[in-house]
Amino acid sequence: MTANRQLLSVVEDIYDTTFDQSLWDNALTRIVEYTGAQSSGLVTRSATDAIHVTRHVGCKPHFLQTYLEHYGQFDPTHAIRLFDVGQIHSTEDWLPIEEFRKGQFYQEWARPQRLEDAASVLLDRSADGFSYFCLMKGGGLVDDNLRRTLAPIVPHLLRAVLIGQVLHQQARIAAPIEHTMDELKAGMFLLDGIGNITHANQSGRDILDRKDFLRMEQGRLVAVDPQLNRILRDAVAASILGDGATRSESIALPFVAQDGERFIGHLLPLTAGRRRNTGIAYDATAVLFVSRASLDIAVASDIIRKIFKLTPAEARVLLAVVEFGSVSETSRNLDIAESTVKTHLGRIFTKTDTRRQADLVKLVAAFSPPVRS
Questions:
Q1: Tag placement on the chain: N or C end, fewer CB within 10 Å?
Q2: pTM
């Protein structure tokens, strides 16, 4: 199998997870094999710091259990929440590798598994927490070759996760999708190669009845915004060519209604994998999901990091100091040396024009939303 064909096969398996979440284990296995990594997982951490590994491959049950019970709280990868969605990062982006190797997380959890580094991608971040994809590597650090290999997969991984959230927030869907179309709160439009609507669920018909940001003109779905309509038209046309032709710019289409209400659209090809049967049944090459956009409140740390130009490592220490108070507690919970905490604190004080830890608490409070949505 050629490299391009192998990549397309991996992408096909990733998109099939949108219809059947149980297929994630297979998709993660394919990604591990394709990149030459050792293990992989999808991880979420809630606003209350509860850690949940939603899917994983390559990690033995014992190590998974100890991660959830103890070592996960020391995992420096959770600093991924301080970065932008969709970017590939490794351990050295938030912690010097020498410092990482001295810590309890590496010595007692990663090293026994011969894990040396991880490539991580933030998938979603909101007031409720964050989720990320993690690809763990043994026998060396994440290098440019691994980044180049993983990069073409990331846009499809993001799209599959986002569409999966739309489909599965109301119900578990493992049966053919047509059986549950009208149960979805999200609008759903099955489209042929030129954008004609071959089927719409009830929520989709309600959107069309508004005659607002999306309309039907001579049987074709049209976005009122010209730029979004061009992206939609091009993405639908590309869907005929399959998963590999899906462009990253069509991951999310930000629609705005006349009254200011915001909606997000996600397009998925139906010309490959297990999705092909749905496409054939409805003479469709793609499906567009449209749902109301939830308010994504930027956490205080993210705002402060950007305003005061803190590094991810400094932002990580700032959050821990505010939460745990003392340098020693921050050191213990971040699994780094007290001297490292003090070094970061000195830089934070300088950048934020503060002098005491109490000032940092006030600073974070000032940028925090008064109510969690």
A1: N
A2: 0.70
Residue 370 has φ and ψ, to the nearest 5°, of -65, -25
Domain extent listing, the chain: 3-166, 175-292, 300-366
> Who contacts 7 (Cβ-Cβ below 8 Å, separation ≥6)?
34, 152, 153, 244
Q: Which helix (H) or strand (E) holds 300?
A: helix 300-307
Kind of pairing between the strands at 187-191 and 197-200: antiparallel
**E strand or H helix that includes residue 68:** helix 61-69
pLDDT at 298 over 60: no
Query: CA nearest 257: which of 212, 304, 224?
Result: 212
Distance between alpha carbon 177 and the CA centroid of its chain, in Å?
Answer: 23
What's the burial of 240, exposed, middle or buried (CB within 10 Å: 0-12/13-18/19+)? middle
| Cα–Cα distance for residue pair 288/190, rounded to 1 Å | 7
Q: 175-292 belongs to which CATH class?
A: alpha beta
| pLDDT > 60? residue 185 | yes
Q: What are phi and psi of 220, to 5 degrees?
A: -100, 140
Which 3 state secondary structure label does DSSP give 337? Answer: coil
Alpha-carbon distance of 318 to 358, in angstroms, equals 11
Grouping H, G, I as helix, E, B as strand and the rest as coil, residue 255 is: strand
Q: Classify domain 300-366 at the CATH topology level.
A: Arc Repressor Mutant, subunit A (1.10.10)
Q: Is-same-fold flag (3-166; 300-366)?
A: no
pLDDT score of 296? 39
Contact 124, 169 (CB under 8 A): no
Q: pLDDT at residue 177 above 70?
A: no
Superfamily (CATH) of domain 3-166: Transcription factor LuxR-like, autoinducer-binding domain (3.30.450.80)
Query: What is the reported pLDDT for 215?
Result: 96
Give pLDDT tens digits for 7-58: 889 999 999 998 888 899 999 999 999 999 999 999 999 878 899 999 999 9
Report the pLDDT value the prediction gives residue 94, as an integer from 0 to 100. 86
CA distance 235 to 191: 11
CA angle, 91 then 93 then 95, to 5°: 65
